[in-house]
Amino acid sequence: MQQEQRFSKVxxxxxxxxxxxxxxxxxxxxxRNNEIRTDFERDYTRILHSLAFRRLKxxxxxxxxxxxxxxCTRMEHVMHVASVASTIAKTLGLNEQLAxxxxxxxxxxxxxxxxxxxxxxxxxLEQKEGHNAPKKFxxxxxxxxxADFIETLPDPNGVEQPLNLTYAVRDGLICHCGEIDQQxxxxxxxxxxxYSMKRPGFIQPYTWEGTVVKIADKIAYLGRDxxxxxxxxxxxxxxxRQLREIVGSTLGFERKGAHALRSGKAVNTTVLxxxxxxxxxxQSSPEKGLCFSDEYFxxxxxxxxxxxxxxxxxxxxxxxxxxxxxxxxxxxRTLKRTKIYAETGRVSQALKYYPKLCSNFEDWLIKYTAxxxxxxxxxSFVDRKSILKYNTKPVFDxxxxxxxxxxIIEYISGMTDQFAIQVYEEIITF
Length: 430
Hints:
Layout: H1 19-22, H2 39-49, H3 51-55, H4 74-92, H5 96-105, H6 114-126, H7 139-150, E1 152-154, E2 160-162, H8 167-174, H9 208-231, H10 237-250, H11 269-283, H12 294-312, H13 315-336, H14 339-343, H15 347-350, H16 355-368, E3 374-375, E4 380-381, H17 384-387, H18 401-413, H19 417-428
């Protein structure tokens, strides 16, 4: 059977028994009399137009680089993932639109400063007490949370409404973790409460397209991280020798036999992405699941070990992690002190010396809590949510300690690197 036909009977379309659940939305999305897009195409553009997606261009992937236009940002990464997922889906006969949508949205809940920021927010959450307190911050779940509760778009009447994505896309967001190495991945059969998941990576996506994105995430970052490490001179000659040894011991140097799918000897982004895609498409089937050849799977494992040893644990990135933790922790502690002021509509009084932080955080409270600013001159509260046409339900409770802490965590998670640094400098500058 040809590659492009291999998964055609399990693609997510109207012939799939999961179709009705896959395109289900929590609330019926408004319709237009001139609509020409499918449900998943609408999801793609709704993610594309969201503020969380736009901010990804100023969020760290691995290397912090506000002044280097050629270092991979979180936005470039998600575009890589969407591109890889689209190619795989098209080749195997799956729903390309669905794969693209999941790929574009999979990191909208990522913290500033990459995984260092994620680790810091996780530590801050673990300090919380109470049986209802979330103990983990993981960006896959946070991407779903942002899609469901935080991000909004104006409807045709100008009222801000939630993104309201389909179940299949929402499922793909929380199930996209590519950190766990697995062969023969199949989608799960049952539609579940997506917020019942307690850990990333262990529950498979609901659709084949979701499993494609899970693999595409891994394919996208492996080679690109090496390219950036080279640009920053993180890798020395010993590292290059290690890379060559990995290629030789797993794939061989000649394009023969089992290694005939190799397109070149180089270990760079374009060669890696192409060859991993080709190998995956060649090896996968609905019966076997999504899988690589033994040679390429071993290559991936060895390459990941190399990246952790030579890149992610490099002393410069460790120093960056210390800085990122200091920035995030300082902002967190500062905002924790505002709870009593938030309860009475006086956040501007608590943060009057930090104008950028004050204005932005107060807007966040207006949109996602029952907060109403108290105007001292008028001796009254102002319903700014109605004025701004925010059709958002209160997500956080100002009077509950745990909920208010979660409110701050989510607020920080949405920051860009640069904005976090700016408000940090506001706080520490006298």
